[in-house]
Amino acid sequence: MRRILGVIICCFVVATAYFAYVIAERQSALQKFARYDDAWDVSQAFTSYLRLEHQLATYSAEGPDANSDDMRLRIDVMINQLGVLQQGTLRNFIQSDPERRQLIANLNDVVTELDNNFETLDADGIKQVLQKMSPFDGPMTRLSASIVQFDIAELAKAQNVLRRLHFIYTGLAAGLILAGVVLVFLLLRHNNLLDRAYGHTRRLTDELREASQELQTQNNRLEHDAHHDALTGLPNRILFRQDLTARLLHARAGQPAAILLFDLDGFKEVNDTLGHDVGDSLLQAIAKRLLDLTRPGDLVCRLGGDEFAVVSTGLTQEAALDFARRLVKEISQPYSVNDLAIKIGSCVGVALADRQSDTEELFKHADLALYEAKALGPGHISFFQSQMQTRLKERKSIETDLQKALQNGEIEVHYQPQATTITREICGYEALLRWTHPVRGMVPPSDFIPVAEKTGMIHVLGDWVLKMACREAARWNLPLKIAVNLSPIQFRSQNLFQSVFQALEESGLSPSRLELEITESVLLDKNEQTLDTLRRLKTIGVQIAMDDFGTGYSSLGSLSGFPFDKIKIDRSFIRDVTTRPNSLAIVELAVGVGRSLRMTTIAEGIETEEQFECLKRLGCDQIQGYLIGRPAPTSSLAYLYGKKSYIQSARGLAS
Predict the structure, then answer these.
(1) Is there a contact between 587 and 569 (Cβ–Cβ < 8 Å)?
(2) Where are the alpha helices (DSSP H) in 63-97?
(3) 602: phi > 0 → left, psi -120 to 50 → alpha, else beta; which?
(4) How far is 79 from 107, CA to CA, in rounded Å?
(5) Share of the chain above pLDDT 70, in %
(6) Pairing of strands 514-518, 481-485
(7) Residue (of 533, 612, 526, 518) closest to 568 by Cα position
(8) Element (H or E) spanning 435, and its range?
(9) Per mean pLDDT, which range of 118-132, 261-275, 283-297, 580-594 is the poorest?
C-alpha cells in the first residue's frame, strides 16, 4: 500500500513539472506567432483592398477585353476579407472605435454594391466605384498600423496572464503534493478502521441474506394470496382467467377446455338465518368436497360469494355433463356444520371451448348456461347452446325497443273487471299494461316487465300507468275501484308517495277508489322507507292489497306486520281448486284468514263456473278472471261513460 502511495506522489511531481514545461513552451510560441494573427488578417484585408482597387482600374481601362472572372474573384476575396474583419477580436477592435466601425461599414456597402451590380457596370460605373473607394485608402492604412499596436498590447497582457497562471498552477501542484502526503497518513490511519468495517459489513451481509430469504418467502405468500381466496384457499378469479387462457392455447391444439360454472341455491338464507360464520364454514366444506371430486389437472376456483367454477381439459360434451351431474349430486349431500345439518343445492352451467374461443367468450357462454339452468330451477344443469345467445340478444332488443315504445304509443292500458261474488256485479277494474310491438306483435308482460325493472324504466312506466288509470277512472259515471300494480322496484324510489298523490290530484279521483296491489317481496326487507310510504298512502285513504297471496315465504307474517285492505289469492291455487284437495285447503285457509283479519279476499284466474261456485261456497268476497271478463282497452268500457243505471249495466256486462 505504501509503495503504491509513493508511486502516486512521484506521478504527481512528474505531472507538475511536465505541465510547467508545457506552459513555458506555449508562452514562448505565443510570443513568436500570436502577435501576427490579427495584424495579418488586417494586412491581408488591406492588400485585398489595394488589389481590388488596382483590378478595377485595369478593368476600366481595358474595357470589353478585360477578364471579368479575375475581377469577380477579386470582389469575392474582398468580401471574404471583410467577413474576417467582423469576427472574433477583430470585430471587437473595429467596433470599439466609431471611425473604424464607419470605415468598415462604408467599405462593405461599396463592395456589396459592386458585387450586386458588377454584371451591369460599364467603364463609367467602374470609375464611379473607384471614386467611392479612393477616400478609404488613408483610413485603411491607419487601420493596418493601429492593429499592430493593438496586437502587441494584447499579447503583453496575455503573457502576464499566462505568467500568473504558471505561478498559480505551480502552487496548486505543490498543494496537490502536500495533499497527497496528507492522504498517505489518512489512509494509514483509516486502514485499521477499514478492517473493522469489513468485519461489520460481513456480518451485515449475512443478516441481509437472511432478510432477503424472508422477503422472498413473504413475496411468495403475497403472490399466493393475490391469486387465491382467503376463506377457502381455492384459486380466485385472477388465477382462473390466467389458467383458462393457458388452457385455451392447448384447446387450439386439440385439447378442448371446459368450464363448469355454478352457484349455491339458498346460500343467502343460510347466511341470514344461521349467520355468516356458519356460511363461511359451509363454503369451506363445499371447497373440500370439490377438491376431492375433481381430477388431477382440474382447477377449482371460487369466483366470489357463492359462485364457483371448475376448469378442466380433455372433456367431451357428454363427459362434461356427467361431471356436472356428479358435482350437483355431491354438493347436495347434507353438511354438518357446528352440529347443524345443512342441505343446499346448486345449478351448473357448462361451456366447452372450440378452436376460436377466447377467455371472455367462453366465460360468457358458461354464464349464459348457468342463467338458463337457474331459470329451470334448483338442481338443473344446462349446456351452452347458440340459441342462448339469441335469447340474450332478444332480451337486449326488447330492452332497446322498450325505451321507445311509450313515446311511439305502442303501450296502452287494458282493464280487467273484478266482481262481487254474491251478486256477480262489477265492483272495480284492474289496470294492466299491454305492449303491441310493430314487428313482434303482442309482447307478454312477463317478457318486458322484468326488463323494465332491470333497466329502471319501471319507474316511468309505473307513473304513466298510475296517471292513466286514475284519469280514466275519474271519468267513469260509476264509483268503481281501480287497482294498479306496483313493482317492488318502485318502492326503492323516495318519490313514490308524491307520484301517487300527484296522480290523484291531477285526475281528481277520490283516494278511496284507488287500490294499489303489491307483492310480498316489498315487505321482505322491512325497511323504514317502505313501511313509511305504505302508512302515508293509507293515511290519505288509498287501499293496499297483497297480490299473489300464498306464493311467498311468510305471507301470514306479512299480514301481521302491515294492515292490508285486501288479499288477492294467486291463480296457481284457483286453477286446481276443484280437483286438488290441497289447493282447496289453501284457498279455504286464505279466505278464513281474510275474514278473521277483516280483509277483503279476491280470487284471480276464475275461468269456469265450477271454480266460481267453489269460491262462492267458501265465502270469497270478490272474483276476477276470464269468466267475468278479459282485459280490454278503455274503448270497450263505453257503458261507464253512459247514463244507464249501475246495477243494470254491471249485471249485463257480467253476464
Answers:
(1) yes
(2) 68-85, 88-95
(3) beta
(4) 10
(5) 85
(6) parallel
(7) 518
(8) strand 426-437
(9) 118-132
The DSSP bridge partners found for residue 567 are: 546, 601
Residues paired with residue 312 on neighbouring β-strands, in sequence order: 258
Judging by beta carbons within 10 Å of its beta carbon (0-12, 13-18, 19+), is residue 607 exposed, middle or buried? middle
Measured CA angle at 75 (ends 70, 79), to 5 deg: 145
Residue of 584 and 94 predicted with greater confidence = 584
Scan for cell 506552459, then name that residue: 23
What would the pLDDT profile of 264-307 be if each residue is shown by its tens digit? 888 887 887 788 898 899 999 999 988 888 888 888 999 888 89
Q: Give the type of residue at 476.
A: W
Lookup: cell for 379: 338442481
Q: Which residues pair with 346 in a beta bridge?
A: 264
**Is pTM, for the whole model, over 0.90?**
no
Of 430, 523, 412, 427, nearest to 468 (Cα)? 412
SS3 of residue 198 by DSSP: helix
Mark 470-499 as b/e (b = at least 16 C-beta within 10 Å): bbbbeebebebbbbbbbbbbbbbbeebbeb
Please, are residues 599 and 567 in contact by the beta-carbon 8 Å criterion? yes
- Which residues share a beta bridge with 436? 442
Q: For the range 20-29, what are the long-range contacts, defined as Cβ-Cβ under 8 Å and sequence gap of 24 or more?
A: 20/166, 20/169, 20/170, 20/173, 23/162, 23/165, 23/166, 23/169, 24/166, 26/162, 27/159, 27/162, 27/163, 27/166
State the Cα–Cα distance between residues 333 and 344, nearest whole angstrom.
Answer: 8
Close Cβ partners of 273 (under 8 Å, ≥ 6 residues apart): none
**Average pLDDT for 380-398:** 80
Angle at 488 between CA 484 and CA 489, to 5 degrees: 110
Supply the pLDDT for residue 398: 81
Terminal-to-terminal C-alpha distance of the chain:
125
What is the DSSP code (8-state) at residue 547? E
User: In angstroms, rounded to a whole number, what is the distance separating the alpha carbons of residues 431 and 428?
Assistant: 10
Beta bridge partners of residue 624, listed in sequence order: 418, 604
Cell of 460: 316511468
- Gap between the Cα atoms of 170 and 189, Å rounded: 29
Length of the chain: 655
Angle, vertex CA 186, rays to CA 12 and CA 167, nearest 5: 35
| Cβ neighbours around 636 below 10 Å, total | 14
Whole-angstrom Cα distance, residue 298 to residue 422?
67
Select from 115, 214, 84, 213 the least CA-distant residue to 94.
84
Q: How confident is the model over 220-249, as pLDDT tens digits? A: 788 878 888 888 888 988 888 888 888 887
Type of residue found at 508: G
pLDDT in tens, 475-489: 999 999 999 999 888
| Helix pair 98-117, 137-227: axis angle to 10 deg | 90
| Contacts of 454 by beta carbon, 8 Å cutoff, 6+ apart | 399
Q: Do the beta carbons of residue 20 and residue 170 sit within 8 Å?
A: yes
pLDDT for the residue numbered 622:
95
